[in-house]
Amino acid sequence: MSFVVVFEDVKIIRSLFRGVSDLLSEANLFVDEEGLKVQGLDDSRVAMLSLRMPSSAFHSFDFEPQEGSEVIQIGLNFSDIKKIFAKAKAKDSVKLALVQEERPYFEITFFRGTIDDMTQVRRFKIPVLEVPAETIAPKELELDVTVEFATGSWIADLVESASIVADDLQVVASKEEEKITFIAEGELGKFEYPVDLSRDETVMRSEIQNDARAIYSLDYLKKMDTPAKIADSVIIRFSSNMPMELSYLVGGGFELKYLLAPRVI
Asked: 140 lies in a domain?
């Protein structure tokens, strides 16, 4: 039972794994012939994430499951993985592997050059954990509002700006006005960020089936903005008093999707 994958841009893997660690301290990494996957609920059961990393997106992908099985389950401490990836350098490549010694280890190798001629090698090994495997079968939600933006970088700025004045973010969509507005209001004042969906150049596509209004925790949205820097696009979906679905799409087919329960209005 083993797997080895290599990706040439460590920044992408680092941001995606940080995005997991900001919400989940421990989780299972599932590996099969289709790629890598992480799913989990946060401890308070308010938010859920799903990370999909297809095998075709990696520069090399070798997978050998145990006989009679089609998947490898690897329990990991993502808080530790976050610390390890902090040691990666901008031009590094990264190799991820499952290695068997006196016990199974998850191996993370940062390097320069090629996989056959590696230089500046730094190799970390962390023990594989027994993490309970929750059966999570998220349903495809029918939500009234869908907006895809050509960049994710504005998400972090939005959350940071709104957090100056409030703890919650109100999201309002108007079908007639073709507009979505982000509003934060608290004792320190009010912040508004209106987006004209028909004119804003960052909007790739949008659909508002019905007017919608919902409120979400900014503390949780802060935990969900790490992948914004590397995302090629971000999709926001919501309905009145329904969960928000926040999906970061990264070149090659990587996708990190969050689901956040609303505050009750």
From this structure: no
Indicate whether 89 and 152 sit together in one domain: no
CA distances from 44 to 177, 181, 235, 240, 261 (A): 36, 28, 24, 22, 11
Q: And the tokens for 200?
A: 């804003």
**Would you state the pLDDT for residue 251?**
86
Residue 22 included in any domain:
yes
* pLDDT of res. 133: 78
Same domain, 151 and 119: no
Strand order in the sheet with 189-196: 189-196, 179-186, 168-174, 212-217
Given this model, what pLDDT does residue 136 score?
67
Give mean pLDDT, residues 76-87.
97
Does the structure show a pLDDT above 90 at 210? yes
Axis crossing angle, helix 10-21 with helix 78-85, rounded to the nearest 10: 150
Q: Tell me the chain's radius of gyration from C-alpha atoms.
A: 20
- In-domain check, residue 154: yes
**So what's the pLDDT on residue 107?**
98
